[in-house]
Amino acid sequence: MGCSKCGRPGVIFQGYSGLHLCMQHFKEDFLHKAKKTVRQHHWLVPEAQIAVALSGGPASCALLDFMRTIVGERKDIRLVAVTMKNNRPYALENAKKIVDASGIPWYIFPKNSETIPQGERPGPTLRSPFPAHASIESQLILMAGALKIDTLALGYTLETHAEWVIRNAILGDSVRKSGCTPNVRPPVQVIRPFMHIPVKETGLYTQLFLNGQDERVETEGKDHPGDPVSLLLAQLYSRHPAIPYALVNIGEQVKKFRGRGLS
Ligand SMILES: [Zn+2]
Prior knowledge:
- By secondary structure, this protein is an alpha/beta fold.
- The protein has one domain (35-259): 3-Layer(aba) Sandwich (Rossmann fold), CATH 3.40.50.620.
- 47% of the residues lie in helices and 12% in strands.
- It has helices at 23-40, 58-71, 89-102, 131-146, 158-171, 173-180, 199-209, 228-239, 243-259, and strands at 10-14, 19-22, 49-53, 78-84, 106-109, 151-153, 189-191.
- It has a 5-stranded parallel sheet, with helices on both faces. The chain has a two-stranded antiparallel sheet with strand order 1-2.
- α3 links the parallel β4 (78-84) and β5 (106-109).
- The longest helix has 18 residues, at 23-40.
- The structure holds zinc ion (ZN).
């Protein structure tokens, strides 16, 4: 099927927009969505010290490329990549390829949550409701702090955010705080520029535009396979592809509402 905008061969059909997009229009759409998210949240400010969490998975590689694109030649913003050592050699190879190509400073840390003193663990308000994510986030936040970084960019995608909203709604206060408390300012701000981009599109972006990435590396976020909520949501999204957008938007509205102190 040809691109809905220009008629050239399509590379993706977006069920939520009803559009077929060619390679160029897919890239434009992808970057437009991520830039809009960054702009709306005022995440790119002068003197920012930003670390991109680079696992070597497709979303993290796409995120590093995106952040490098938007920071561009700005001399007032520092951009580095941070990686926790993992047991996925292909992923580390991918990470190395992309930092070598980009020239961005890269820091690798051992994975060992036991070395984090209890008092220095980020509080629940900073964390993802998923235990696997929360542990990684805690360690990345500490890494960023050690490097004098004030912003940590994570490659979480649309589906992950939509699932947070559902879990926060279902599971009550202790979890709700994890995703939606904006009024506690962390020393390291966590940003998620791909929160409006489906996971499939981060994979396609990496495949099409980041040459040499090893396709054996799976997308992150499969750390709770078989979970009934995840499975039900995946089935729902396949029938109604606009629903994750609606959920993320609801989550953002709740955040704003609470941010005004009206909750
Ligand atoms: Zn096109």
